[in-house]
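can u do me a favor
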């Protein structure tokens, strides 16, 4: 894919921070911003790549009773998961 020139509006403070960070990384602000957007897009895409992963559930969880715990304390703690 080729380069696409675009103009974006950002605050002066944000641009100054981008210039400082780009300088530390020895890249241009354009390269810094492009890499940040690309990295964020890849991160968002990665969140959707686990459809076969089972959803978290406590249905099969069996809570262990703490040593010296009364029945009332146990039930109170168990109620946190109901």
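np, heres the sequence
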């Amino acid at each position: 894919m080729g380069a696409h020139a675009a103009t974006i509006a950002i605050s002066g403070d944000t641009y100054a921070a981008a210039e400082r960070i780009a300088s530390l990384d020895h890249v241009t602000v354009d390269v810094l911003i492009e890499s940040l957007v690309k990295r964020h897009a890849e991160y968002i895409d990665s969140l959707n790549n686990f459809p076969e992963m089972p959803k978290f559930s406590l249905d099969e969880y069996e809570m262990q009773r703490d040593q010296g715990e009364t029945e009332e304390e146990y039930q109170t703690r168990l109620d946190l998961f109901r």
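The longest helix spans residues 29-47. hope that helps!!
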